[in-house]
Amino acid sequence: MANHSLAFEKPIVELENKLQELRAFSEAQNIDVSAELVELEKKISETKRNIFQNLTPWDEVQLARHPQRPYTLDYVEAMCTDFIELHGDRHYADDQAMVGGFARLDNEPVMILGTQKGRDVKSNVARNFGMAYPEGYRKALRLMKLAAKHACPILTLIDTAGAFPGIGGEERHVAEAIAVNLRELFLLPVPIIVTIIGEGGSGGALGIGVGDRILILEHSYYSVISPEGCAAILWKDRAFASQAATALKLTSKDLFKAGLVDEIVPEPLGGAHTDPKAMAATLKQRLLTNLRELKAVPADVLLRQRYDKFRAMGVFETEAVGG
Fold first, then answer.
1. Is the whole-model pTM more than 0.85?
2. If DSSP states are collapsed to H, E and C, what string results for 260-310?
3. Long-range contacts: 42-47, Cβ < 8 Å, 24+?
């Protein structure tokens, strides 16, 4: 896939183009410009660091949607061995927007599953752009119950704009499928670790989003609605998506501050797509660390803590201010 740059990355792209031109000029004219190259590389590094340390919420949304960002199956391939993909919900069909199966994470048996986008038009149509149908959530629940039956920890990876909102989804009761998943996930007596690896959109994310630990990649987002959808409701115009992104408090830092996620997993400078192997290695270590901690917790305590964790979300304490 050709390199895809975002609007806020324009200064970096311009400097990198100058670097390539200078190298080509040096080779063509046989002139030593090593000092200039070092200085330009230093400027690129500083510019990149400054830009990515000061991203707006809308910038973060664009980065989370980057078409070269690693998807679920990319992480499975990079982190796991002996992956056996399982198919079908045993009711209607096999939803390719939801993938999963048994695997080993450093010889630790796990059930790993998540939403999956495509890389081109053909695969995106097959994957329904990562937006699962009801059968996708029923497949996910079937796999998670199978994992619990074998006392196998569950890892879920979230990257979806939301569940499919079309007629087919409504006809087959997508809201009911997600609601059942929410209920059942609170009852599975095995460790569950949820990671938002890109987009965490609405109920489509929540359908596999109940767990003992909620991790989020640094440049991912998690929101009750997309910025465009929020803008269309509040401002009657999707052009206000950037303002909506700010108002929604959907970035990893906002979510951690609000207590909605437990840990922010750092990404390589420039985003996960700039070094997928390093990103996968970092995520793998964080998953293993959390797995070790959760496996030491008795099942009854684990279930109680999971329940209390979600019951505490959105609860605030207030004080009366004296006159």
1. yes
2. CCCEEECCCCCCHHHCHHHHHHHHHHHHHHHHHHHHCCCHHHHHHHHHHHH
3. 43/15, 44/12, 44/15, 44/16, 44/19, 47/11, 47/12, 47/15
How far is residue 90's CA from residue 146's CA, in Å, rounded to a whole number?
13
Query: Which residues on adjacent β-strands are paired with residue 98?
Result: 115
pLDDT score, position 1: 46
What is residue 323's predicted lDDT score, i.e. its pLDDT? 53
For residue 184, give both structure tokens. 């059942």
Residue with tokens 């997928």: 276
Q: Note the pLDDT tens digit of each residue in 91-131.
A: 999 999 999 999 999 999 999 999 999 999 999 999 999 99
Q: How far apart are the C-alpha atoms of 139 and 98, rounded to whole Å? A: 8
Residues 207 and 154: their CA atoms lie apart, in Å, by 14
> Using the 8-state DSSP alphabet, how is residue 9 labeled?
G
Q: Percent of the chain beyond pLDDT 90? A: 82
Buried b (16+ CB within 10 A) or exposed e, 222-237: bbebbbbbbbbeeeee
Q: Alpha-carbon distance 40 to 96, whole Å? A: 45
d(CA 302, CA 144): 16
In 3D, which of 231, 235, 185 has the Cα closest to residue 207? Answer: 185
